[in-house]
Structure formats: structure tokens, C-alpha cells
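Ticket #284: bound-state structure for adenosine monophosphate.
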Amino acid sequence: MHVAHTLEDLRPHFGGVLIPTMGALHTGHIELIEIAARHAHDELNGAPVVVYVFVNPTQFDEKDDFDRYPRTLETDVAIAAEAGAQCVFAPPVELVYPQNESIPVGTIPDCAVNKGLEDAFRPGHFEGVCQVVRRFFKLTQCAAAVFGEKDWQQLQTVRAMSEGEGLGVTIVPGPTVREKDGLALSSRNVHLTKDERERALSISRGLRAAQQEFTVADAERAIRESVTSAGIDVNYATVRDAATLEPLPPHTTASELQAPARALTAGRLGLVRLLDNMPWPSEP
Ligand code: AMP
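RESOLUTION: The complex was predicted; output attached.
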């Protein structure tokens, strides 16, 4: 296992499959590394698998969240090696954002603008994501990159950006990994108290309840009821077109859908913003 801090160190691993992360790796990230390894083997002739660890300051809208974000590089390297990566790239901030160079943000795809989702509740977030992802793609010259479905709007945004701008990077999705009781894994979950951890289950419960409802309006109501009843301050609880993230008419039934739909929710509980999503209705 190789740990690269400079482009010179990274050079032998150019052209591979990238897993962009902010570190504090958990089982969700391990799943993405394993997907990357399969993609590298099956589609790219055994290209290298590179885990990128960088807590990107430009995508945080709250300074406290950035300061408190867990940083555990040594453990991350061991986890990445065990999961099958060949390299961890952990550049210093000056390499990603050199002082006298302006790093382009590019055009923000439509699915990340005026949707009332993460774009509304984390102003500037997708500008930061698009900026840093374009930058990683350039620095690592990767052929493919794996992103988790857990951050659904981010996955659609990065896919639209790569296709729309012809960046030549294949975006490979990875399913959301959950605890046995349904809570989606997240590096931020360490900040939940025992009681909050219990209440956080209302998120996946609400999404699962929504999957059983017949109309968009009823599905949205089911999510909101579950989440608010646990005392979570809901940001949104909605069913959208899965790719464009446009709203759907409330009376649409599952059988009338013209394209895949996704149920998405987010809310704040104590120090943590929780977000999650599931297909709507449930996949067969
Ligand atoms: P992060 O380190 O939280 O920025 O996430 C890095 C990547 O891991 C992103 O593509 C996330 O969508 C993905 N990810 C985060 N949590 C999970 C999870 N529970 N299951 C699968 N992928 C995840």
C-alpha cells in the first residue's frame, strides 16, 4: 500500500479508479473500494484503485462542522489497504488549492440548482463539490470514480458534470451501507448521543414506510410524519425524479411514473445533519 502526499508520489497510480472521501472511513467506504476494485479488474485491465482522503474546506458551509470533522488518516490507510486499494492520496490543502492559482468551479448542473434539497440547505456546497471533484479528476487523471448513493444529489450532480463537460470519467454508483437496524452509515454519526442514535432511525423507517404508499403526496407525508415525530428538525421530505431531482405532481401513483423516482429526506438532530434516500417505490 502506497501513501501519496504529492503528485510525484501519485504518478505510478495515475489513470485508475478513484474513491473520493473525506476520510474517517467506515463500512460504506469499504464497499465503495471493493466496487472500485471490481470495476478496475473487469473494465480497466487491473488499473490502480486510489482512495482520495481530503477534508475539502470549500464544501463546508459551517466552520464548526469543518473543524469537528473526524480526521483519522492512519486508520484510514489500514482500512483502505485491507479493502483492496493500492494507494491512498492525501494531499495537503496547498496542492489542491495553490495560493496563486484560481481553481475553476465550472458550470453547476441543473440537478444541483434551485431544487430545495442539499442545494438550499447547504448554500455553496455543490460549488465546492464540483470544484474539488474536477480538481481530483485532473490531479489523479482517473478513468473512473465511485460515489455513494447515500449522497444522492451529489451522485447525480457529479454524473451530470462529468457527462456534460466531457471530463471522460465514468461515474460508478455504490449502494448505501446501513447498520443492521437501518441507519445509514456516516462519518458524522460519531457525534450522535445514544438517545439521538435511536431517534435517527425514524429517517430510514420513514423512507421505508413511504415505499409502501401509492402516491407521491402520501409517500412524502409518511416520511415527514416519521421524522418529525422523533423530534428531528426536517429540512425536506420529498419524492423526486431520480436523475433530474425535479418535483413530481403530488397525485402521481407509483405505476404512473415515467422515469425512476427517489424518496429523499434530511434533517438536523443535535450536532448532526442526517440525510438518506431510497428508491420509490421499493425496487423489486
Ligand atoms: P464522505 O467521506 O462522507 O464525503 O463520503 C465519501 C463517499 O462515500 C461519498 O461518495 C459518499 O456518498 C459515500 N458514502 C458515505 N456514506 C456511505 C454509506 N453509508 N454507504 C455507501 N457510501 C457512502
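RESOLUTION NOTES: The chain has two domains: 2-174, 187-280.
TICKET STATUS: resolved
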